[in-house]
Amino acid sequence: MKNSILVILIIVISSCNSMQQNEVKHENTAKLFQVSVIDALLQGIYDGNYPIGELSQYGSFGIGTFDALDGEMIVFNDTVFQVKSSGEILKPELNTLTPFAAVANMNSDTLFQLKDLSFSDLHDNFEQYFPTGNIFYLIKIHGEFTYMKTRSVPKQNKPYPPLVEVTKNQPEFEFENVKGDIIGFYCPEFAKGINVTGLHLHFLNQQRTGGGHILAFDLKQATMEVGYLMNYELLLPNKGDFFAGDFSKDRSEELKKAEK
Questions:
Q1: Which pTM value belongs to this model?
Q2: What is the enclosing helix (H) or strand (E) of 36?
Q3: How far from the centroid of its chain's Cα atoms is residue 145's Cα?
Q4: Sign (positive/negative) of CA torsion 162, 167, 171, 174?
Q5: What is the C-alpha separation between 152 and 23, in angstroms, rounded?
Q6: Are 132 and 187 in contact (CB under 8 A)?
Q7: CB burial class (10 A; 0-12, 13-18, 19+) of residue 77?
């Protein structure tokens, strides 16, 4: 062809082809908005401080938890879902408070068709899907799963125990041959203490009757959209236990235990 083609958006159709890209344009204004920090949860600061109904002004997709650590949050197309420790899925009132949440709008910068992929495969082959480990990403996966394992944390009473103690007895759920959606983020290593570094994903089945924080999955076939998040906004609590928290300690090992 004599006519040149200006490539503005790279869309990768096969997960077998790795994406090679050395630059993400600063015109990308997609932003990750976050309420509080993960190290607050790790030390048992679970009091909600921000209404979930106000998250939609910053993003239509995201994850988090609820006041007193009452279950797992999935924000999907501006709707907030609450996965209770019983496995029940609720749509909580918009004035419900969250102690920790992260949301963004889905600007799909790359698209992959995935087949026969596990959670560990996605982690181990990170460079095949993401151009660098040094920025934030929003991840949305829709498809069929031969196996999905999730958890949800139960509501806590004061005095709140540390998160690593809560997750020792977390209810876990297993699904077989299920369709649904994964929403979550990748956060780089320099975000340690601020957010969960690496892949942090939550799941909702297609019927919206089950889900939670993902522990493992085996994917049959799915579409994965990845959005590059070049901007970041952090909203800190303006009162309560957060002011007396101890953020001088490295809680990386606690986080690994809590996430698994």
A1: 0.90
A2: none
A3: 18
A4: positive
A5: 38
A6: no
A7: exposed
